[in-house]
Amino acid sequence: MIGWYVHHHGWGHVTRMQAIRPHLLDDVTVFSSLPRPGTLDERTAWVQLPSDSGPVTASDGVRREAHELGDVTAGGALHWAPIAHPGHQQRLATIAEWIARTPVSAFVVDVSVEVTAFVRLLGVPTVVFAQPGERTDPPHRLGYDLADRIVAPWADGTIDARELVDRDEQVRRVGAISRYDGRDRAGDHDGDARRVLFLSRTLDPARLAETIALLSARGWIVETAGAGDDDRVDDVWPLLCRATVVVSAAGQNGVADLAAAGARAVVLAQDRPFGEQEHTGRVLHEQSYACTGWADSSPAQVVDLIERAAASTPGWSGWGVTGAAARAAAAIEEAAS
Fold first, then answer.
1. What's the CA gap between 171 and 115, in Å, rounded?
2. How far is residue 329's CA from residue 312's CA, in Å, rounded to a whole number?
């Protein structure tokens, strides 16, 4: 049995788990604050954890936010450990109770320094996922120190992670993990039509609307997937394949999907903790994988980037998507054995 903690921010962490899961022979039990996805197979159990960040009633009867109850970082040693928060206590107790009654071969953490430390203290081998950005702070170093394996979801020679220096015995750079790796192309773009796809909320609604107006005036066909409240698309693969240019944020899963599709891309880095997307965007620019900018780029700037991307000939092979999910599974199995 393999345990797997999935962080609840966005859907990227659960998407990554679902890409790797078919390559693991063991049963898997996932712990997350997110609801169970409808596409999991019967060999994957899902334990929904309570939130550890909502307001609670303090001992004086006053309703307070978690960060108002005390130092949530334990003096900078951790990222998030709220004082006397019932949800935080219950989620760790749930994991501990499961480990106490289950023969766990390894526990994957994507991502939480606190869960990594807790599980390792319970005597279970841990596998953690690295992320781009500046991760040299004490909590990140603690999580990496405790890990039996560190899965870096990027190819060697792409992301430069200073915090992984001198950790060669632990680190497995597996390449970018995409749910679409190995999938046949579908919906290739039609003839001379110029089609641009905006993924997720890469631009705010007002900026997106103005950008679409400028593109339409130039003859572009504009499609969106997840850019608003009413355009969610569960399977964007056909849209990726038929687009002349794809506009995406610099999240790990989004960029991996661009690489799997061999897309001409504009990547607009969003403001994220530890400079995660800025770091990725810089690498994409320096190594000529995509045309890059910022989420606050003006509509005219975004249109210019799209026109430049349309004339480009990207080569994504160095991003290492092919076989990445299987290599990540192999790293997990190393720790489990």
1. 19
2. 34
Q: How far, in Å, CA of 176 to CA of 299, rounded?
A: 29
* Ranges of H-type helices in 52-204: 86-101, 113-121, 138-146
From the centroid of its chain, how far is CA 313? 26
Question: Which pTM does this prediction carry?
Answer: 0.94
d(CA 140, CA 312): 37
Q: Which residues contact 196 (CB under 8 A, 6 or more apart)?
A: 215, 220, 221, 222, 223, 243, 244, 245, 246, 247, 306
CB contact at 8 A, 26 and 20:
no
List, in order, residues 6 or more apart from 241 with CB less than 8 Å away.
185, 186, 187, 188, 189, 261
Digitized pLDDT (tens) for each residue of the chain, 337 residues in all = 999 999 988 788 999 999 999 999 999 999 999 999 988 988 999 999 999 998 988 778 889 898 888 999 999 999 999 999 999 999 999 999 999 999 999 999 999 999 999 999 999 999 999 999 999 999 999 999 999 999 999 999 999 999 999 999 999 999 999 999 999 987 666 667 899 999 988 999 999 999 999 999 999 999 999 877 677 888 999 999 999 999 999 999 999 999 999 999 999 999 999 999 999 999 999 999 999 999 999 999 999 999 999 999 989 999 999 999 999 999 999 999 8
Contact 252, 176 (CB under 8 A): yes
The residues, any chain, with a CB within 8 Å of residue 5's CB and separated by 6 or more, are 30, 31, 32, 95, 107, 108, 109, 110, 112, 115, 119
Contact criterion met (CB below 8 Å) for 108 and 3: yes
d(CA 228, CA 199): 10
Tokens of 81: 């450990």
Measured over the CA atoms of residue 305, residue 310, residue 312 and residue 316, the dihedral's sign is positive
Task: Judge contact between 141 and 162, C-beta under 8 A.
Answer: no
